């Protein structure tokens, strides 16, 4: 009995020693030790430090006691325990599919491996942007001293596909809308409804400005906007002439026509054309400063170069309802008019029918003088003077035949 009691005391002492030793030295718990086979050996520590074998049942009892968490227990032991649980859970998880894409170059696997066709998301179609461009037409606009003739675009000299665009365009409607907008001094004029191709815009503007001498207040530059190849809008530029200048021009034109043609209903077309020709030659003088070239200069100020003479004559013919046009010669650096009388076209050069005298000190005009040398000329007659006369003009009409 004494021997059994002694044995029991030894076991209890050993258990207490293990507990105290683990708490003071921060060693892993007995559960962790149990993982290593070399450390699961059953042993009993006596008070004298001797090792004695103990039963498996006793060792199990000792593990249960040391398994209770004590303050200050080693966190490394907890980490190992939790790590073991995570590894066990991972082992029980579904196997990894090696065919799935893996992370590449710091990108998530989906973004790195997704086919290119899928990464290109379809973007909504945006409306085509308008393109703005500024154009200077001063070389073609007579009121700015221009003499060049705009070549008309044809299917032979425009880009492929433009001929169809031109067929759908309403050129005359666009001219009417442009003229109306310019008369009202609009800052922006819409042409979208007329389907005007970009290739036709310059010629359209030149035609409107040259055919309407009253538009002397419109600048030679403009901006326009495109939608594809179709002109949608034009933004004209206006020069320094004011509304008061326009009123003065209108009054001067009314006065000139009234004095030149007091009884238009009782006169033939030829007589009206001659009366307007004579009035300008008698009331104007040539501008030898070469700085005045519009109809305002001619009718209000009474002086201009050949462009001003021709534009003023056109304005008076327009008021009389007589068809007219212009022709130019770069070889002569000169321009004059075409006039339609009774269905036939003729040359009329008011400038050269206004006699000038080149004096030694300064040129001067013969006030009140007029001649009819270049009035209603055919092509043959006006070109009969060779290099001293009219030559190299632009053929704007079929031909000017001899007047019957």
Outline the structure in words:
The protein has 14 helices and 15 strands. The protein is an alpha+beta fold and 404 residues long. Strands 3, 4, 5, 6 and 7 form a five-stranded antiparallel sheet that branches. A four-stranded antiparallel sheet has the order 10-11-12-15. The chain has a two-stranded antiparallel ribbon with strand order 1-2. Helix 1 packs parallel to helix 3 (56-67) and helix 8 (171-183) crosses helix 9. The longest helix is centred in the N-terminal third of the chain and has 24 residues, at 2-25. The model is unreliable at 27-54, 66-81, 101-113 and 153-162 (pLDDT under 50).
Main pleated sheet? 5 strands, antiparallel
Q: What is the residue-mean pLDDT, rounded to a whole number? A: 76
Low-confidence stretches: 27-54, 66-81, 101-113, 153-162
Question: Quick one: overall form?
Answer: rod-shaped
Count the beta strands: 15
Number of helices: 14
């Amino acid at each position: 009995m004494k021997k059994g009691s002694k044995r029991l005391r030894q076991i209890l002492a050993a258990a207490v020693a293990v507990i105290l030793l683990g708490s003071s030295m921060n060693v892993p718990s007995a559960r962790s030790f149990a993982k290593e086979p070399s450390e699961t050996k059953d042993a009993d520590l006596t008070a004298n430090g001797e090792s004695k074998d103990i039963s498996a049942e006793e060792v199990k009892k000792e593990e249960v006691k040391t398994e209770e968490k004590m303050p200050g227990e080693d966190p490394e032991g907890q980490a190992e325990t939790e790590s073991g649980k995570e590894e066990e859970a991972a082992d029980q998880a579904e196997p990894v599919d090696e065919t799935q894409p893996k992370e590449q170059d710091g990108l998530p696997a989906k973004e790195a491996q997704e086919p290119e066709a899928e990464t290109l998301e379809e973007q909504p179609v945006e409306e085509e942007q308008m393109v703005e461009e500024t154009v200077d037409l001063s070389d073609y606009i007579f009121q700015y001293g221009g003499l060049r003739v705009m070549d008309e675009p044809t299917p032979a000299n425009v880009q492929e596909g433009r001929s169809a665009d031109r067929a759908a365009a309403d050129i005359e409607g666009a001219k009417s809308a442009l003229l109306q907008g310019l008369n009202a001094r609009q800052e922006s004029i819409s042409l979208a409804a007329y389907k005007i191709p970009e290739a036709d815009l310059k010629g359209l503007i030149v035609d409107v400005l040259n055919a309407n001498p009253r538009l002397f207040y419109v600048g030679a530059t403009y901006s326009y906007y495109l939608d594809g190849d179709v002109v949608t809008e034009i933004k004209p530029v206006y020069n320094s002439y004011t509304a008061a200048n326009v009123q003065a021009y209108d009054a001067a034109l009314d006065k000139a026509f009234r004095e030149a043609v007091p009884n238009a209903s009782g006169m033939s077309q030829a007589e009206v054309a001659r009366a307007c020709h004579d009035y300008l030659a008698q009331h104007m003088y040539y501008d030898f400063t070469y700085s005045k070239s519009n109809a305002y200069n001619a009718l209000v100020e009474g002086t201009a170069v050949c462009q001003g003479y021709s534009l003023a004559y056109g304005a008076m013919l327009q008021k009389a309802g007589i068809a007219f046009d212009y022709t130019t010669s770069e070889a002569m650096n000169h321009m004059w008019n075409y006039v339609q009388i009774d269905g036939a076209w003729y040359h009329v050069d008011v400038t050269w029918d206004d006699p000038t005298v080149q004096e030694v000190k300064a040129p001067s005009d013969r006030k009140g003088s007029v001649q009819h040398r270049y009035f209603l000329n055919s092509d043959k007659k006006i070109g009969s003077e060779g290099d001293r006369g009219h030559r190299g003009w632009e053929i704007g009409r079929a031909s000017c035949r001899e007047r019957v």
